[in-house]
User: What shape does this take?
Amino acid sequence: MKTYLVTGGAGFIGSNFVLYMLKKYDDIRIVNLDKLTYAGNLENLKSVEKDPRHIFVQADICDRQAVSALFEQYDVDVVINFAAESHVDRSIKNPEIFVETNVGGTVNMLQCAKNAWAEGEGFKAGKKYLQVSTDEVYGSLGETGYFTESTPLCPHSPYSASKASADMFVMAFHDTYGLPVNITRCSNNYGPYQFPEKLIPLMINNAKTRKPLPVYGDGMNVRDWLYVEDHCKAIDMVAQAGRDGEVYNVGGHNERPNIFIVKKIISALADRVDPAIDETLIKYVEDRKGHDRRYGIDPQKIRDELGWTPETTFEVGIEKTIDWYLANVEWMERVTSGAYMDYYREMYQNR
Ligand code: NAD
Ligand code: DAU
Assistant: This one.
């Protein structure tokens, strides 16, 4: 039985990954380490609450003792490091926690893996450390071209700078100590359980409650959207068969300007909820500082080497996602009460 140490497994992508893996494989167990920050939510994992293959541990990836104790207690085969501060706007306001968690936490995870897996001059067989990174480390594209794995790192936000720095430590542990590692760099994810600070769930929630839809700048910044399950599938494949020390970009060639996404959500909600939901809700607001103009992933390497292809088109994925948020009103109400209201006011009231 393979043991995965998944960090950040109560967040958006992490919880989708835990559910995906437990559904797909009988013969694994997942130790899920999560600090439960504002973005972590055990409600996402309700369906596996009683599953003995899922062991939840509330802890901080920066905590040497807690993490090394888990390596000692469970014979960890694979680490999947999702845990991070993940929101660009928050990083612009408070960069320090991004360095602490995303850089310091990653280095701590690497050190713990290196110590636990050491054997003779090298490492025990069959071990793998996978860092879940992002296309944002490459910076911004012009109107043409795509990010490949050899595109130079050129991060612009404190968030992407912290992720790029973490990636460099991952490669440094590979090059210096021979730690078996992979890095995945995926484009924007969407789907169930995404915290409504991010574009798609925020717009669904605001439109449903007839609140203004805050579009940054001219709304023409482009993101490359991928349904979260397709990202989970890619991570699973890289963890199993990725070549040691390699980076794999993940994306489905699904680039859309932000305003297209917002209008799509408006028309879907007008059909399903209330025809009065219309484009008059759109409010163009002050742009994000240092706003990257365009992201676009070239996924040829993961496609050619590992046979990964996305299964969910944007047309299907966005409908499934809207259906999920409409069917999970209580989830949305719980995550948008309390501290979320303060965050929302701070972020949007003077924009
Ligand atoms: P998220 O913010 O929804 O979840 C982050 C999780 O990490 C939460 O459960 C939180 O409690 C946990 N966490 C935060 N700090 C921690 C700490 N110090 N110790 C332990 N747990 C901690 O994030 P997400 O959108 O699911 O992103 C997951 C990972 O994927 C991140 O590393 C992010 O950089 C990367 N990524 C995200 C996207 C995207 O579109 N969301 C795309 C590519 C890559
Ligand atoms: O590309 C991968 C990255 O995607 C991940 O690494 C990050 O963790 C994840 O948060 C996401 O970053 P973005 O900044 O692209 O996502 P966000 O949902 O915050 O914004 C998407 C686009 O929408 C971006 O161009 C900013 C814009 N936007 C966002 C919000 C929240 C708006 O116009 N209005 C908004 O209110």
